[in-house]
Amino acid sequence: PAVSSNHVDGHPFFRFCQTALEDIRAQGRYRQFTPLARLADRYPLYEQPETEATPSTPACPEDREVVVWSSNDYLGMGVEPVVTEAAIRAIHEHGAGAGGTRNIAGTSPVHTALEAELADLHGKEAGLLFGSGYVSNQASLQTILTSMPGWICFSDRLNHASMIAGIKGARGSSTVIFEHNDLADLEARLAAAPKDASKLIAFESVYSMDGDIADIAGTCALARKYGAMTYLDEVHAVGLYGAQGGGVSQRDGVADQVDIIEGTLAKGFGVHGGYITASSNIVEYLRLTASGFIFTTALPPAVVAAALASVKQVRKDNWRRERIFERVDTFRAKLRAAGIPFNMTPSHIVPIPVGDARRCRELSDRLLNDYGMYTTPINYPTVPRGTERLRLTPGPRHTDAMMDEMVAALGKLLRVNDLAEASAVAMA
Ligand code: PMP
């Protein structure tokens, strides 16, 4: 059938969209998605662009292998046979979809098993699954902060959009934004708040764009001193940090001091879905009242079974954690030796500062088209203007040879495009 266009071209919203898109393009922030086919036998070493590329996709030679440098499937668990086979078995056993919301016929034994596994991973009484990490933050924070009158949420300035959505959506509560990872500022704001107000501190462990890590013990100490609860997003840490991949709170031995730990099954665990773990009364309250949990179809059992297999495997395999950090260290050493600027972080994330949206896009396009290396340009609004960057996430299967290729390509492109100058400014 013919593709229909707007039948009210004159409507102000149509013109509004057009202008907004023109502005985004003019600022070099237009986003093109590069379709990548994930090959189970080779991923994450290689991914192959689809041969039938849509016209807006950057031209990429057909059948060429592309090394992916920006995956959030940090450990490559999404294509581990133990994970994919669990999904296939669950499809045969339970079908393709959940069949309903969790309350209405959508709960399978794998859902409850995964919730128990995650609670155990974080040393909490209970766990609750959501459709994604985004939904777990949005739904949990909004529900908690509207539960009783007078909540004050102390929110780190760089918290993820999903936390902000939940905090902003909680009508009746108030929000105090504290400076990023700044305990002195947090304490000053806690001290200034009414003593008897219900307080919640919402923060992340690994901040994914800058790659820095919060002082969880320090934050929890302040929480105790001022009678606040703590809500910690460990999305970029679960699987990677802690003796069993329980995140930075596990690594630092302070998981018991955090009231609510939130995570995703889509990054270190390589599958899909979000969750919180907490005391059973909090989890039960959210299970029975959180709109974003109740009124949506449950995660497909195959996805849940895959996630469960992944969590169990990642908990056991400490070598996966050792391997990723060894790879990250090796990559940084190679960048340093070649004089390529990068932001040193205490995490597994390697930001290459560029400092300009158009240059960032260009650098990313050239890496893909000329060198077959896929990187994502990180632009405003994900990061502030002037701090645009490539965000590289070396993984367990990036070889030394691949790293050498990336370092050589970056060295050449940064020189050729004068990008080194912009980077130097961004580093200052
Ligand atoms: N929290 C943080 C800090 C994130 O970066 C993200 C996603 N990038 C989310 C939550 C949402 O997780 P998910 O992708 O599972 O929706």
TrEMBL record:
<keyword id="KW-0808">Transferase</keyword>
<keyword id="KW-0812">Transmembrane</keyword>
<dbReference type="InterPro" id="IPR050087">
    <property type="entry name" value="AON_synthase_class-II"/>
</dbReference>
<dbReference type="Pfam" id="PF00155">
    <property type="entry name" value="Aminotran_1_2"/>
</dbReference>
<keyword id="KW-0350">Heme biosynthesis</keyword>
<dbReference type="InterPro" id="IPR004839">
    <property type="entry name" value="Aminotransferase_I/II_large"/>
</dbReference>
<feature type="transmembrane region" description="Helical">
    <location>
        <begin position="288"/>
        <end position="311"/>
    </location>
</feature>
<keyword id="KW-0012">Acyltransferase</keyword>
<dbReference type="GO" id="GO:0003870">
    <property type="term" value="F:5-aminolevulinate synthase activity"/>
</dbReference>
<keyword id="KW-0663">Pyridoxal phosphate</keyword>
<dbReference type="InterPro" id="IPR015424">
    <property type="entry name" value="PyrdxlP-dep_Trfase"/>
</dbReference>
<protein>
    <recommendedName>
        <fullName>5-aminolevulinate synthase</fullName>
        <ecNumber>2.3.1.37</ecNumber>
    </recommendedName>
</protein>
<dbReference type="InterPro" id="IPR010961">
    <property type="entry name" value="4pyrrol_synth_NH2levulA_synth"/>
</dbReference>
<keyword id="KW-1133">Transmembrane helix</keyword>
<feature type="domain" description="Aminotransferase class I/classII large">
    <location>
        <begin position="65"/>
        <end position="410"/>
    </location>
</feature>
<dbReference type="InterPro" id="IPR015421">
    <property type="entry name" value="PyrdxlP-dep_Trfase_major"/>
</dbReference>
<comment type="subunit">
    <text>Homodimer.</text>
</comment>
<keyword id="KW-0472">Membrane</keyword>
<dbReference type="InterPro" id="IPR015422">
    <property type="entry name" value="PyrdxlP-dep_Trfase_small"/>
</dbReference>
<comment type="pathway">
    <text>Porphyrin-containing compound metabolism; protoporphyrin-IX biosynthesis; 5-aminolevulinate from glycine: step 1/1.</text>
</comment>
<dbReference type="InterPro" id="IPR001917">
    <property type="entry name" value="Aminotrans_II_pyridoxalP_BS"/>
</dbReference>
<comment type="similarity">
    <text>Belongs to the class-II pyridoxal-phosphate-dependent aminotransferase family.</text>
</comment>
